[in-house]
Amino acid sequence: MKTKRIQVSQIHMPVSHNTKEVLYKAAKVAGVPYDSVMSSRIVRRSIDARKKNQVHYTYRVELTIPANQRYARSRNISLSEEVRFDSVIHHTGSFTHPPVIAGMGPAGLFAGYLLALNGCSPILLERGKPVEERIMDVRHFWETGQLDPHSNVQFGEGGAGTFSDGKLNTGVKDRFGRNRFVLETFVRFGAPEDILYDAKPHIGTDILIRVIANMREEMKSLGAQILYESTLTDLVVQDSTLKGVVVNHDTELETDACILSVGHSARDTFHMLAGRNIPMEAKPFAVGLRIEHPQELLDARQYGEGHSDLLPRASYKLTGRTETGRSVYTFCMCPGGYVVNASSDAGQTVVNGMSDRAQDSPNANSAVVLSIPASEFQDATDPLAGIAFQEALEHKAWALGGGKIPQQLFGDFENNTVSVSYGAYSSCTKGETVFADLRKLFSEEMNRDLTEAVHLFGKKIKGFDRPDAILSGVESRTSSPVRILRDETCQSDLKGLFPCGEGAGYAGGITSAAMDGLRCAEALLKGR
Predict the structure, then answer these.
(1) Preceding peptide of 474 cis, ω within 30°
(2) Could you tell me which CATH number the domain at 3-79 has?
(3) Domain chopping of the chain, boundaries
(4) 100-281+483-526, what's its fold?
(5) Rounded mean pLDDT, 452-458
(6) Could you give the count of Cα atoms lying within 13 Å of 43 in the half-sphere of its Cβ?
(7) Residue 166, by phi and psi: left (phi above 0), alpha (psi -120 to 50) or beta?
(8) Nearest-CA neighbor of 127 among 216, 2, 280, 233?
(9) Which tens digits make up the pLDDT trace of 211-231?
């Protein structure tokens, strides 16, 4: 039987409802008898809390119906035009040597997965350890302060996103179906199905670890070779063409192509590339501090008093501009989460946020960050100037806390006083903490901008700027400070080198990095 698919949007449901009620209402709105619907699925689900006395869910649903079935015509009903990503890429397969992927964050994982699906037997290099061993090293660091520079929150299988709670929302337009493919792949390997339709999809660090392990085993079964504790340390170049890569300074692998997906913290790799005269430029990024609030405060503010116990943990995304003209915003908001010591280098401290799937910590946290244009770097013409800017902040943060996370209450930060105790609630962290003067991290202008930013956001969420809000520093790795230039074929001017993902400056989170990994793998395959 011939069929057609229609999408019905703006389906409003009360806070308490079930899936069958949603699908029944979709058919009713579409004017289609429910028993004529051959299949259905939820395309998108979001919460509308703009009016606290009318909080509700909004759905978009796809219905598959017989081709001759009539349906209502309205602006909220349309034929489905969803684009599906085809993971089978036509290519000649003419690799003299297996392609190499440097880095197993989201970009590297999905590039490797697509190459493996197409029979290319890629070699994946990861400077860290398998995710099961990596989590043990990370926990040991949080408990003892003993850092493994190659196995930590930034480095290891899964990349830095593994310990940032698995948020999967992205602003990247999905004209080719890559986003859907990424989400479906995560579900295939163990992620919950609601990430396919939630407006703010979230896996959780605890589940993401299992998903990554399952994905790795599938790639191995498809012929991929994975080399752990294997750092890309040099390139073998002949006539402006990549001929191989050097691993751990002593092992050379011949290859026709390398997808460079090393992540935003691979500073040694960036220095190596600069020494090889690979075209790069300093890229703007943002720095600031983590801020913690009681989750119940945010639930009440975002949902109202009558619904907070029936809805997911509330989140927010805030933006503004200070009197100096600087852009300020919140970044990587973690409902029911933890502030984590995310350091990867000796003598440097950096923080991030994470949540498990249950989001069951009593606190919420996010980064309040200031935009740092390249013009503020000491030498804006130096492609590595942003790295130097980051490192200077992280050295200061380490000195303030002696390797522990330095903290200060917002009221004390504003009044230039070192805190001596928490206020009405305590901090939820992974890693030891100590009170310190966080104003010593930044210039006075930046301190004024941060203070102003918190008060600006306090006008949007009452209580955001409460004096006992807990600040932690320093949040300095919001994105890569470097862009490795590439052309329309995704290659550097060194033929065969494919700069990829967040570290190369072409993504900003798990999903966009994974999508860029697919894009670079496609470019590699289609060039063959």
Answers:
(1) yes
(2) 3.30.70.2700
(3) 3-79, 100-281+483-526, 284-475
(4) FAD/NAD(P)-binding domain (3.50.50)
(5) 98
(6) 18
(7) left
(8) 233
(9) 999 999 999 999 999 999 999
